[in-house]
């Protein structure tokens, strides 16, 4: 018993850890929370999936075995004791009881016996008589169900633990140990071999199933270690329509799936709506509305090169969840770039209020600020800023990066900009590049200016125009032109860092104070030249239009300064999409659930019986004495509480009254 109680306490502590610490999350989230050292320690003991860890299941099994042995050994004795009146007790034995009473009566033994029996019946006692010569033993009991409470409570522990083991990963792991092989490579479900499939009549499982709109599925996916197993279902689900509504914060408020269910054995079909907290139960399998995802939306995008003087955009078509190849460069320098289109979000609610004109600050601080979050942290109003696309590509540094680009321009600090996010792994926040929107609400003007900055001929022409406008004398013009041309060349290769790379730290602010205005004015000239060559209308530099053009150049300057930190050879702008929703279901067969319910009922009955049903036993010897009779009585209980003492006093008074 002490061993079982110790195991139960250990399970309680482990369950507390599993409740407080969110389970089955990505390893990166735990590393960020606890650090690499403690992550390794906790991972060693499977703290991140406590309920399916080997040691937790082993303790559960030990508890079941230990408590079962306890029941097997003690339950029969408890049942016999609860049903027995213990009528074979000797009269002399009653004198050894602490709670006893003796009384002599002038009544005949038969009359005394009758009065005692009537009193016991009135108090709810059951009794049994044993004749011993002229003497009679009345053995009475009440509250024998108290003994069954111990049996119910211990049986409840066993039943609940067995139910927990049935609904855990133990049945799946046993099948893996017996030969099932989780699939670790990409393949169609139809291509999965028998070793990667669980039986349709599997005792217990919990799987996930993604069904796009208009598609059908009859298989769930069970995650095991670093792979998956396919779990066939006895029916097929066809997603006819998926509906979702949102709060003002952009969080889903409600979502549901209208499905058609097809019984694979009989061909029977019926429609059903699956909602959160309103699952589908059919053929022993429960289907829960878990979440939703993209079901393979068709994307139309425009690609803009971010390397060299090439400014020609190209079309990129793809499907969410699949990869697409694009060709970068031409001729012998042409190369293939694989883009993994990972997601499409049609609604993005951002907090964009409180955007005021930025206060003057050092240029380096301003450059750093534009690589932060998408929206200022102090904003309070929420706005839907439109769709965004997520994709992964191999960057210029040879590493895979995730990108998040918004389809529409967003007004930040009273300026319309396109947000282009990048992060190195899913555990990081996106760092956003702000690209100014042009008059057509596109990034085309910025991309042409970027390409012109990489063209030595156009740089030289822009530097010449800048020098001609700003040189104080003809002698200074060549020097100023050379300085502007060199600054733009360095800026194109590495932003502001490239300009001050070889400058002492105490001189950098001074150098930037001269170089930044020169580059900004040179970019203005470069934009004019680019518009002339492209046959576009000239840019006005006076009045409100001139102020807007000057602001646009400032934003473009900051965006280009951050381009070296944007590790992608191409920028993909979302042009259009055909949205396809998909519903994510959790399908489960959990026979242990009913066992747990039964165990809970047994536990309630057991606890109620042990704490609220009081076991009482009374023995009364009635024997002749002269013309009257003598009564020797005793009372006992498993728990001799204060209530029991009061009850004994009432019993003692009753015996004395019955004797008169």
From TrEMBL:
Protein name (Swiss-Prot/TrEMBL): Cytochrome C biogenesis protein ResB
- Keyword Transmembrane helix listed: yes
Q: Name one GO biological process term.
A: cytochrome complex assembly
Predominant subcellular localization, coarse grouping: membrane
Per the record, membrane topology reads:
Multi-pass membrane protein
**Ranges of residues in domain ResB-like:** 1-649
This entry carries the following GO cellular component terms, namely: membrane
Task: Provide this UniProt record's keywords sorted from A to Z.
Answer: Cytochrome c-type biogenesis, Membrane, Transmembrane, Transmembrane helix
């Amino acid at each position: 018993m002490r061993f079982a109680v110790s195991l139960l306490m250990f399970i309680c502590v482990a369950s507390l850890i599993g409740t407080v610490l969110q389970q089955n999350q990505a390893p990166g989230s735990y590393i960020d929370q606890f650090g690499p050292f403690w992550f390794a320690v906790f991972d060693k003991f499977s703290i991140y999936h406590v309920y399916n860890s080997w040691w937790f299941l082993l303790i559960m099994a030990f508890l079941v075995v230990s408590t079962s042995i306890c029941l097997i050994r003690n339950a029969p004795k408890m049942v016999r004791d609860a049903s027995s009146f213990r009528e074979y007790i000797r009269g002399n034995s009653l004198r050894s009881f602490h709670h006893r009473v003796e009384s002599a009566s002038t009544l005949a033994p038969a009359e005394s016996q009758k009065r005692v029996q009537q009193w016991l019946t009135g108090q709810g006692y059951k009794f049994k008589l044993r004749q011993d010569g002229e003497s009679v033993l009345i053995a009475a009991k009440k509250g024998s169900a108290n003994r069954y409470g111990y049996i119910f409570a211990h049986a409840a522990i066993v039943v609940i633990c067995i139910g927990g083991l049935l609904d855990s990963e133990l049945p799946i792991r046993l099948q893996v140990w017996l030969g099932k092989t989780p699939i670790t490579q990409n393949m169609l479900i139809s291509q999965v071999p028998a070793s990667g499939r669980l039986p349709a009549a599997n005792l217990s499982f919990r799987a996930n199933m993604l069904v796009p709109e208009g598609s059908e599925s009859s298989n769930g996916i069970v995650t095991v270690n670093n792979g998956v197993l396919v779990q066939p279902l006895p029916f097929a689900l066809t997603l006819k329509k998926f509906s979702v509504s949102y709060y003002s914060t952009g969080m889903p408020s409600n979502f549901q799936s209208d499905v058609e269910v097809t019984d694979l054995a009989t061909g029977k079909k019926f429609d059903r709506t699956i909602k959160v907290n309103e699952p589908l139960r059919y053929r022993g399998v429960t289907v829960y509305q878990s979440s939703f995802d993209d079901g393979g939306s068709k994307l139309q995008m425009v690609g803009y090169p971010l390397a060299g003087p090439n400014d020609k955009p190209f079309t990129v078509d793809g499907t969410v969840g699949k990869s697409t190849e694009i060709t970068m460069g031409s001729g012998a320098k042409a190369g293939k770039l694989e883009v993994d289109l990972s997601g499409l979000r049609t609604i993005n609610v951002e907090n964009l209020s409180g955007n005021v004109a930025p206060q003057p600050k050092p240029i380096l601080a301003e450059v750093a600020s534009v690589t932060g979050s998408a929206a200022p942290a102090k904003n309070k109003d929420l706005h839907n800023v439109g769709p965004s696309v997520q994709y992964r590509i191999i960057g210029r540094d040879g590493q895979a990066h995730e990108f998040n680009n918004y389809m529409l321009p967003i007004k930040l600090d009273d300026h319309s900009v396109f947000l282009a996010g990048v992060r190195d792994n899913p555990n990081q926040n996106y760092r956003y590049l702000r690209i100014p929107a042009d008059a057509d609400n596109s990034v085309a003007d910025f991309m042409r200016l970027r390409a012109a900055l990489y063209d030595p001929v156009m740089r030289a022409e822009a530097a010449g125009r800048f020098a001609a406008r700003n040189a104080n004398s003809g002698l200074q013009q060549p020097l100023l032109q050379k300085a502007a041309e060199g600054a733009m060349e360095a800026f194109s290769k590495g932003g502001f860092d490239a300009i001050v790379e070889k400058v002492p730290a105490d001189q950098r602010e001074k150098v930037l104070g001269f170089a930044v205005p020169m580059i900004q004015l040179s970019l203005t000239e470069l934009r004019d030249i680019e518009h002339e060559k492209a046959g576009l209308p000239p840019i006005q530099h006076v009045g409100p239009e001139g102020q807007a053009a000057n602001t646009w150049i400032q934003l473009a300057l900051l965006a280009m300064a951050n381009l070296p930190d944007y590790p992608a050879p191409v920028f993909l702008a979302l042009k259009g999409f055909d949205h396809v929703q998909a519903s994510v279901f959790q399908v489960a067969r959990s026979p242990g659930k009913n066992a747990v319910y039964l165990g809970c009922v047994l536990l309630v009955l057991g606890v109620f019986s042990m704490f609220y049903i009081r076991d009482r036993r009374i023995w009364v010897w009635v024997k002749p004495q002269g013309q009257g009779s003598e009564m020797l009585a005793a009372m006992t209980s498993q728990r001799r509480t204060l209530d029991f003492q009061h009850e004994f006093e009432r019993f003692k008074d009753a015996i004395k009254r019955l004797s008169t």
